[in-house]
Amino acid sequence: FGVCRREESEIIEGEVVEVQIDRPASGTGTKVGKLTLKTTEMETIYDLGTKMIESLTKEKVQAGDVITIDKATGKISKLGRSFTRARDYDAMGSQTKFVQCPDGELQKRKEVVHTVSLHEIDVINSRTQGFLALFSGKDPELCLEMRLGEAKTCSKAEKENGVLFIDEVHMLDIECFSFLNRALESDMAPVLIMATNRGITRIRGTNYQSPHGLPIDLLDRLLIISTAPYSDKETKQILKIR
């Protein structure tokens, strides 16, 4: 379960024409440099500071890469190699991704999506002046509905129900099944996937037996997908592919 937060940010997006870094002759001192970016309609030269040079070096940015730079944080992301540089090398790695050179202005506004889990929200809210203060109030133990309701009212976030996977589900007792049965009726219920290798077995906490050790009322709400061991032919095919 998590919360999807959308916001607009200003970015610089373009194809790298040249990266020029000037290092002091003594080997020590502040590095300076210039970054030339272009789109299909314009080309601009940007002066680089020490932090931006370190970021470019860390991301291994070179001429021909299509990158985005978040103006607020300075974060650099490589989108791939430009199609115009596809013939620069005779051989390319399978991980090399080619993209079109961006069009329009270099500076543009783009919607950025941040997804955080409920646990991450609680951890951040437990700190003073947490980054996601929009999800919290004065009481750190606010219920989930209040935290999400406030964010949704402000049009700052929307909930992501997510997926809950429970293996060996026959190990749960009747109280856990009662909770799951009620939780599935909530609007914020995740997609529930359960796995077990049991047939007719006793429901823990009771003297009743049922298929897979699940209460009948919960079993009626599930889609059962049976699995079978791989045949020798299928096993050989899997090993051949790998």
From TrEMBL:
It catalyses: ATP + H2O = ADP + phosphate + H(+). It is found in: Nucleus. InterPro entries: NA-bd_OB-fold, P-loop_NTPase, RuvB-like, RuvBL1/2_DNA/RNA_bd_dom, TIP49_P-loop. Keywords: ATP-binding, DNA damage, DNA recombination, DNA repair, Helicase, Hydrolase, Nucleotide-binding, Nucleus, Transcription, Transcription regulation. GO terms for biological process: DNA recombination; DNA repair. One of its GO terms (molecular function) is hydrolase activity. The keyword Chaperone does not apply. GO terms for cellular component: nucleus. Belongs to the RuvB family. Proposed core component of the chromatin remodeling Ino80 complex which exhibits DNA- and nucleosome-activated ATPase activity and catalyzes ATP-dependent nucleosome sliding. This is RuvB-like helicase. The lineage of its organism: Eukaryota, Metazoa, Chordata, Craniata, Vertebrata.
